[in-house]
Amino acid sequence: MAAEIERGWRDPALLAKALPSVLLQTACFLAPLLMTFALTFQKTKNFQLTWTWNLDVWTDVFSKPHYWTILLHTLEMAVVCVVLCVVLALPVAYALATRIKRFENHVKILITFAFLTDATLKTFGWVLFLDQKGAANFLLEQLGLPAGVVAILFTDWATMLGMVYGLLPFMIFTIYLSIDNIDRSLILAAYDAGAGKLRAFWEVTLPLCRPGIWAGVVLVFLLAVGVFLEPKVLGGGKSPMTAELIRQTFETRVNWPLGAALTFVLMTVAVFVILLFNRVYSLKRAMVTS
Amino acid sequence: MAAADLLDIVALRKNYGAFEALKGVSLSVRQGEFMALVGPSGCGKTTLLKHVAGFEEPTAGALRLDGKDMIGVPPAERPTSMVFQRLALFPHMTVAENIGFPLKLRRVAPAEVKARVAAMIELMQLKPEYLTRFPRQLSGGEQQRVALARSMISEPKLLLLDEPLSALDVKLKKVLQAELKRLHRSVGVTFLHVTHDLEEAMMLADRICVMRGGHILQVGRPDDIYYRPADEFVAGFIGETNLFPVEVTGREDGSLRYRSAEIRDVSGLVPAALAAEGLAPGPARMMVRPELIHIAGPIAGAAAFDCSVDAEITELFVKGGTIQYRACTPAGQEVVFEMPGTSRLPADLGDRVALGWNKADIFLFRASGG
Lengths: 290, 370
What we know:
The complex is a heterodimer of chains A (290) and B (370).
Chain A: H1 2-10, H2 12-39, E1 43-45, E2 48-50, H3 56-63, H4 65-99, H5 104-116, H6 119-130, H7 135-142, H8 156-180, H9 184-193, H10 197-225, H11 229-233, H12 242-251, H13 256-289
Antiparallel strand pairs in A: 1-2
Chain B: E1 5-16, E2 19-30, E3 34-38, H1 45-53, E4 60-65, E5 68-69, E6 80-83, H2 95-105, H3 110-123, H4 140-152, E7 158-162, H5 170-187, E8 190-195, H6 198-204, E9 207-212, E10 215-220, H7 222-227, H8 232-237, E11 242-252, E12 255-259, E13 269-271, E14 282-288, E15 294-298, E16 307-318, E17 322-328, E18 334-340, E19 352-357, E20 363-366
Parallel strand pairs in B: 3-8, 3-9, 6-7, 7-8
Antiparallel strand pairs in B: 1-2, 1-4, 4-5, 9-10, 11-12, 11-14, 12-13, 14-20, 15-19, 16-17, 16-19, 17-18
């Protein structure tokens, strides 16, 4: 596979065939990216973009710790969200792929429904549920607990709840697919070799579904970094995350150069984290292989 | 049950919902024996093997290994080891890790694991440099040997083989069949080998168990299965055969009297030893294997043989070492027979000849559905 791709670079005929796709990618992906980058070197005056090249925005970004505090908070939230998603998704995916085969499709449809429901709707649904006089508190009151036990709305806890709820399906499905792809006789072979259920999971299932877990981690991390609805609606906008900051900068403050710069910072950090993940993962693989 | 029986299966039943996969199977495998389980797909042979391995629990019946009751004992605690149809080598482990895995689980010291893996590699005639490779880097035959090595390293009392050779090409299959036989002789472990290939079973096994539809039809040595099959199905399961319809009319001191419209037989008697046990009067089949039928001479002759029929040669194949004929009797019964090759054909297409065979070469069993 890798050899074929390498050869592709040197094969002019193959390159020619790829040209339309390369052009489309350039026009639709690379060009806007470059435009955004160019935008970071411009100025706004009276909410008007003026095309004069300067470094004002970048000096602003690097001199104010405010932006970096928000970015750090964003990364924190994203990492915690990823960890929670893995912890919650692994047993669900495992059960779905191996244990509850009879209800497999029903559960998958339910998860897909939750997944396909509009994000705004879901988020406001959580607001209604978590509200002081919402369903959660009402139910707990009926059970005899004091009024307003659930007081997490408009805190980071609510934001996290919304994020995990929204992103969990991505993690469940990627892990589920990798577990489902494991040849069942491998697990039987582990039992046959003398492994108990836990040992077989640890020695065979987990290593073989690790690529799925990593894929889910990368996917959920990227999506979690870009979340803005949850911190705004469920978090009450009290501790904004970078995506929300960018939205505000573009829409409310109409400072496009600053917004573009913040976008670039977020993107760079996200790509860096992914590369770091990748490096650790391939290092681990290399260690196993050697 | 003799003391030398390693595996005792008694009236084992398994239902999957309304489907009965095993309908009361009883089988004993002796210590050190090479037993083959054969039958068409869906006959329950693999299901039976999974019960022995512990992957399935029976609905009813008993399963004893080495005198110990195995019902409810998990696979990890049974003295069995399985070689899977698709080998099931762990793709994320090296060959050495794969082979050593059962020992690692038994907390054997790493140094000893290493030594025993090396010994196993040698027994399997694998190159030592393969130890650090991954299964996907090996050829099909080499993977096969690794799978065998992994199954044998924990020194199981009973090795279970679930059609491990079925995916290989014919040439490699022959090599590995010889290898299995050598391994069985040198290690002395009891083998229980599932295959749908009766030829393979005849080559390898000491005894063969033929299954069909969740039942055991016959257990016996390869020559029993081939020359003394229990019924029409077993007779037709391997190679070609001739089944002449006859009517058993009664018993006469140790012999069975029969009648046939076509077969010339002066005595009309068959020793009871050449008939299926408990064959009752009624429609039956006289089986004669193709290599046991001879051209006796012109029609209505064949005084030198106990039994004979007249037939016209309809087809002729020179197969190299052998010549195969197909012929048709006046009543329309097709007869296939085979003889060692000669430079001059003893009969040609369209010839009418008498075909003869000896009483000692026949076997009589009940006609199916009769």
